[in-house]
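Example record for the data management plan.
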Amino acid sequence: MRAICQAIEEASGKGTEFRSASPISGGCINNALRLETSSGTYFVKKNHPSFLAAFEAESIALAQIAETQTIRVPLPICYGRNEGDSYLVLEYIGMSSPRPDSQAEAGQKLAAMHRNCGEAFGWNKDNTIGATRQPNPYSNSWIEFYRDHRLQFQFELAAQGGQTFHNAEILLERIGDFFEGYQPEPSILHGDLWGGNIGYTQEGEPVIFDPATYYGDRETDLAFTEMFGGFGPDFYNAYESTWPRHSGHEIRKTLYNLYHYLNHHNLFGGGYANTAQSMINQLISWG
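Corresponding structural encoding:
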């Protein structure tokens, strides 16, 4: 931890002496610590050295979201590798319960964040969704990007593990059917926006973290908020009042969450494959 303190000092220009470190529970991929130093309190993630590239991508993503000056994120301080670990140091934000209007604020600010668009779909580097590599080559076609680098990529990972999905190829061939009359803009995305990746400060301000950022259809972020719950009517009403979604989003929601169910199958197994197959069947019947 003293080596991490030295990295913080070099990045911040503030004298940083180690005082204490205590574990923080809640994550399933990284070890998280609250680091107390003479220059302040920091949130530290640690993992195997191979995670350095993922920590670099997360640092870049948080900085890009912060630059939009919309919804709050923990600011990145530094990342690196030492003594057999890779690490990421972030601003420490104490979390508490939301205010009555906090979810509405989150919806408004997420819509404002999505207004920040790139020139193409994808991102400047690959990153991870959970512990799975997420390829982000730039593309001018959202349909091709989502087909090839989201669904097809996950189908191939599943096949490597012995799992195939009936009608997967038919779905990939028909994916354009779900975008008739709709041309998504390449919005900056959180990319992994489920209820566990949003919190609220002591004052009730919404904070999003653990991003899997790229430029894509904003509906993908909103679809994933519905997969495990945690977002109420105030959140969606506020988002819609700020930037309404296009017609057909209720059907595309299934298409977008299919990516996450496939990824959860590839990561955890269990019943996610059965749910993914049911979603494929639904989409085929609608397409």
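Summary line stored alongside the record: The chain has a mean pLDDT of 96.
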